[in-house]
Write a structure and sequence with these properties.
142 residues; GMP Synthetase, Chain A, domain 3; 2 domains; 3-stranded mixed beta sheet; elongated; OsmC/Ohrsf; OsmC/Ohr_fam
Length: 142
């Protein structure tokens, strides 16, 4: 399956990129790099793609397994290499599940299935970074 994305320069350090979904996004450098900070940063978008890909898997599995989860947030931290080209060489992902009736065993299975089987972005990251997974179970937020 082929995916095509067209990214158009809008001047200065700003670009607009389309997406197969039909939605566009703006990419811009920060002021320290000659941009105006009016868009997403490319490397941070990679982390959003990683969390989003895995999150979609997990949301689907929560539904299929009929699990009770009030909230889920995925916190992704990454370290860049020192030398150019700078890339993420260490990534940690914290899956934070909130609820009063969490089935920890099944939620762990959902995370494991995403991490080890379904999430293609996760597999891409594994090609260049050490990826660490943490799962946290917390009571519902009141």
């Amino acid at each position: 399956m082929k995916n095509t994305v067209t990214t158009k320069w809008l001047g200065d350090m700003k670009f607009e990129s389309d997406n197969p979904s039909g939605l566009n996004l703006t990419i811009d450098a920060g002021e320290e790099s000659g941009g105006h900070g009016e868009g997403y940063r490319p490397k941070a978008l990679m982390l959003s793609a990683l969390a989003g890909c895995s999150g979609l898997d997990i949301a689907s599995l929560i539904k299929k397994m009929k699990l009770e989860v009030e909230e889920l947030d995925i916190v992704t931290n990454a370290e860049l290499t020192e030398e150019h080209p700078k890339y993420y060489n260490k990534v940690s992902i914290d899956y934070n599940f909130y609820g009063d009736n969490l089935d920890e065993k099944k939620l762990k299975k959902a995370v494991d299935l995403s991490v080890d089987k379904y999430c293609g972005v996760m597999e891409m990251f594994r090609q260049f970074a050490e990826v660490t997974i943490n799962i946290n179970y917390k009571p519902a937020k009141k």
